[in-house]
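Hi all, long-time lurker, first post. I run a small reading group and we've been trying to get comfortable going from sequence to structure in the token notation. Rather than ask abstract questions, I figured I'd post a concrete chain and ask someone more experienced to write out its structure so we can walk through it together at our next meeting. Sequence below, copied exactly:
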Amino acid sequence: MGGKWLGMLKEMAPHIDRVAFLYNPDSAARGAGSASFMQSFETYAATAAVTPVKLAARDDAELRRFMELFRSAGGGGLLVPPGPLQHRASRYDCERGGTAPLPTIFPYRFYTVSGGLMSYGVDLYDLYRRADGYVDRILKGEKPAEIPVQTPSKFELVINIKTANAIGLTIPPTLLARADEVIK
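-- Answer (accepted) --
Happy to help. Here is the structure in token form:
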């Protein structure tokens, strides 16, 4: 998924030459959270002519400081994978809206609705509906260990045109055509 996010971000903002991957090093050391996305991000960065930047932050103060340093250097984009620290960064980035020209891709639709540039990820509503089926089966007596694991099958691309315009990006028609939702 890290490579997919990077590819879409590069398609949206072809001028970027470096992309920061935001992560919590404590979670990554335990093999949790965004560590699983980092490898495909780094692999794809080499083929996309993008310098990958690992933006490691453990707390909000570190996060804001590193994001501002990266943002002030210019020419970059930001990839925000799922996770608690990343969620706070996403809120920070969305609060700033288009005032800081940093193309960013988020993992879920609600970030883009809140002012983020774009998101690509699993459809959370679909996951909730599917979880409902699990609950129903368990309540009817089926053992959880006997229920097959389902992987996400529905993904959605959401683009915020207002944010793209605010940071001076022209959305490629090919990306618009693939979008499940366009926020004006």
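A couple of things your group might point at:
The two ends are 26 Å apart (CA to CA).
The beta strands are 18-23, 51-56, 76-79, 104-106, 118-122, 155-160, 181-183.
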